[in-house]
């Protein structure tokens, strides 16, 4: 048997289209600028496509929804292989500031909304945003420390109840 014949025997051809995604739940676990944008833009794209969205912020992802940190997210230069700079250089004073400034300029060129504006857009579009109860306790955060777009504080188990039937994405 040829490789083609084996593949055809193993994977039967079907003419049915895949089910469309109806709901997505995104777990935001990192609070750097370069991790906040992908999660929020993905959530916005889903909402624009008519897909229901839950966002669950945990661990460092809590920075995205913490009032005192929201407008001061940075780009991580240490341990970021995409930066293409040696780790010891990434740790030099001013490197993180410079990388963050460069990324913010590129974001501005693309006319992307700020993180706060994206949270407003997502809330207005019906996205449900939740903070992780354990992370709140661990970082000693109170409900009033969070942005008003956060609908509630959930345990991980409660989040999975909310996520039932959805595609789950971990960022």
Pick out its properties:
single chain; 171 residues; alpha/beta; Hypothetical Protein Ychn, Chain: A; 5-stranded parallel sheet; 8 helices; globular
Q: Average pLDDT value? A: 87
Largest sheet: 5 strands, parallel
* Oligomerization category of the chains in this entry: single chain
Number of strands: 5
How many domains, in number, for the residues?
1
Could you give the distance between the termini? 43 Å
Strand content: 15-25%
How would you name the CATH homologous superfamily?
Answer: DsrEFH-like
Q: Which regions have little confidence, pLDDT < 50, spanning 5+ residues?
A: none
Strand order of the largest sheet: 4-3-2-1-5
Your description of this structure?
The chain is of the alpha/beta class. It has one domain (22-170): 3-Layer(aba) Sandwich (Hypothetical Protein Ychn, Chain: A). 41% of the residues lie in helices and 15% in strands. The chain has helices at 3-10, 33-48, 67-70, 87-90, 95-109, 115-124, 133-138, 156-162; strands spanning 23-28, 52-57, 128-132, 150-154, 167-170. It has a five-stranded parallel beta sheet. α2 runs parallel beside α6.
Short structural description:
This protein is an alpha/beta fold and 171 residues long. Helices cover 41% and strands 15% of the residues. The chain has helices at 3-10, 33-48, 67-70, 87-90, 95-109, 115-124, 133-138, 156-162, and strands at residues 23-28, 52-57, 128-132, 150-154, 167-170.
């Amino acid at each position: 048997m040829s490789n083609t014949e084996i593949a055809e025997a193993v994977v039967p051809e079907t003419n049915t289209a895949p089910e469309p995604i109806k709901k997505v739940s995104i777990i935001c676990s990192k609070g750097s600028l370069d991790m906040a944008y992908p999660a929020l833009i993905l959530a916005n794209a889903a909402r624009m496509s008519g897909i229901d969205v839950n966002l669950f912020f945990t661990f460092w992802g809590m920075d995205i929804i913490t009032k005192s940190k929201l407008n001061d997210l940075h780009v991580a230069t240490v341990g970021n292989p995409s930066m293409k700079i040696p780790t010891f250089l990434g740790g030099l004073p001013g490197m993180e500031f410079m990388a963050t400034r460069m990324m913010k300029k590129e974001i501005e060129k693309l006319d992307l909304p700020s993180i706060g504006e994206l949270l407003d857009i997502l809330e207005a579009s019906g996205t449900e945003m939740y903070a992780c109860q354990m992370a709140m306790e661990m970082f000693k955060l109170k409900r009033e420390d969070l942005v008003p777009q956060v609908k509630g504080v959930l345990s991980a188990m409660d989040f999975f109840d909310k996520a039932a039937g959805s595609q789950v994405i971990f960022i």
